[in-house]
Design brief:
Helices cover about 25% and strands about 20% of the residues. The chain has one domain: FAS1 domain (Roll). The N terminus is likely disordered. The protein is of the alpha+beta class.
């Protein structure tokens, strides 16, 4: 199989350029697909002899809730780009020069969605972006060495790549909490680790 090579250095420009470029790069990633939980609609054309006498049954389409990877899995960076929910995270990773780092591993990434970043005050986000050292610390605080699925996450401290530990706990219903914030979608496997989706940005204490 021919392997498509993506030149990721082209996204190291301004924050305005990141989102459209990420969207342009996403289709080029190999072996990755977004899979809907709903059933596919039939591709068959209607029979003209019955179309007028047999009204079509209403179709209910469930929302897409699952990100799945084929046998030829994308790496963590490719997964984040293609999933469509992590454009802010992908842009910040590019700004911090961490793309190649996250293509190593294996890693476990607690990945905040775009909605999670939208919860932050704009001034706080800008302060992080303007401080390269702080940006790298915040991003790598979301990364743990090794592949840890939800079942592997036990209560207690967990060392991060940033060198600052985060805290794993469990809610009464069994939901895994990271620094008190729930994992909203767990165990998205990539070729070099696993992603857990977070609805909040994790910030190291101090």
């Amino acid at each position: 199989m021919m392997r498509t090579v993506i030149d990721m250095t082209s996204i190291r420009h301004t924050r305005r350029a990141v989102r459209p470029l990420v969207a342009a790069l996403a289709p080029a990633l190999v072996g990755f697909a977004l899979v809907s939980c709903s059933s596919d609609l039939s591709d068959a054309a209607p029979d003209p002899t019955t179309a007028s006498t047999a009204p079509a049954a209403p179709t209910t389409v469930a929302p897409t809730t699952t990100v799945a990877v084929t046998a030829a899995q994308a790496d963590i960076v490719g997964t984040a780009l293609t999933a469509g929910a992590f454009t802010e995270l992908a842009g910040l990773v590019a700004d911090a020069g961490l793309i190649e780092t996250l293509r190593g591993g294996p890693f476990t990434v607690f990945a905040p969605t775009d909605a999670a970043f939208a919860k932050l005050p704009a001034s706080a986000l800008h302060d992080v972006q303007d401080d390269p050292e702080l940006l790298a610390t915040v991003l790598t605080y979301h990364v743990v060495a090794g592949t840890l699925h939800a079942a592997d996450l036990v209560d207690g401290k967990l060392d991060t790549v940033a060198g600052v530990p985060l805290t794993i706990s469990h809610a009464a219903d069994g939901t895994v909490l990271v620094d008190g914030h729930p994992i909203t979608a767990a165990d998205i496997d990539a070729s070099n680790g696993v992603i857990h989706v977070m609805s909040d940005v994790l910030l190291p204490a101090g």
